Amino acid sequence: MIKENVSQILSKLPPGVELVAAAKTRTPQEIQEAVNAGIIIIGENYVQEAEEAFGVVGNKAKWHFIGHLQTNKVKKAVQIFDVIETVDSLRLAKEIDKRSAVIGKVMSVLIEINSGKEQQKTGVLPETAEELIRQIAALKNVKIIGLMTMGPFSENPEDSRPYFVVTKQLFDKMKSLNIPNVEMKYLSMGMSSSYGVAIEEGANLVRIGTKIFGERSQK
Ligand SMILES: *Cc1c(COP(=O)(O)O)cnc(C)c1O
Predict the structure, then answer these.
(1) Mean pLDDT of all residues in the chain?
(2) Ligand 1 pocket: which residues have CB below 6 Å?
(3) What's the pLDDT score for residue 120?
(4) What's the CA-to-centroid distance between 207 and ligand 1, angstroms?
(5) Which of 88, 186, 191 to mutate to test the pocket of ligand 1 (most atoms within 8 A of CB)?
(6) At CA 202, angle to CA 91 and CA 209, rounded to 5?
(7) Residue ranges of domains in the chain
């Protein structure tokens, strides 16, 4: 099933849109199967799960962190991941900078935008994003390469559209500012139910779990 699902999705993605297989709760074997089917980017929400999967799949795929990163997990995370998609504070960025410097790496990151302005939700508010981006841009071992958003969850993908639009507008604005050490290359938006809408609104990185691996059991 994983193989068929991956082929199906890949065949329908427009050129220039890259697929992240959101792999939380999946076994390393399932992830390996997805990679064999043509997945080249794995998205992980938990550092420990990523470590186990990385032990099996290794560098045959690129690894994106898409969960909420605690500072005490940064040291491990910078060793495994190619991109951290969920940077939303200077404190976290500074820790990533420090730990990356130790291993001689420049960590690529996306800034997570709280496009729904939800309380107690991760991500920086759209109106404070520029300030945060300018601060992070000054860090030597961190490189901003785009934005990511989740938006409020809804069964109906159309409900997500306004949040994708807001994030795309911010993306275009940040791009036009030409901030040194900031490259607005990736706009990561859309999941299994909403990726069609996200692509219509400018996403070029979509994060899909259920449509690749099937329904998740509770976790
Ligand atoms: C789980 C997850 C996804 C994928 O969700 P599906 O609905 O299973 O496609 C995408 N992005 C993030 C941040 C996730 O945690």
Answers:
(1) 97
(2) 22, 24, 45, 66, 150, 191-192, 207-211
(3) 86
(4) 6
(5) 191
(6) 70
(7) 2-213
Q: Is 2 exposed, middle or buried (0-12, 13-18, 19+ CB in 10 A)?
A: buried
pLDDT at 219 over 80: no
Instruction: Place domain 2-213 in its CATH homologous superfamily.
Output: Alanine racemase (3.20.20.10)
**pTM of the full structure:** 0.97
Ligand 1 midpoint to CA 46 (Å): 12
pLDDT in tens, 109-150: 999 999 999 998 999 999 999 999 999 999 999 999 999 999
Q: Quick check: 92 and 116 in contact, CB under 8 A?
A: no
How big is the chain, counted in residues? 219
**Ligand 1 centroid from CA 148, angstroms:** 12
* The residue type at 109: V
Q: How confident is the model at residue 218 (pLDDT cuts 50, 70, 90)?
A: low
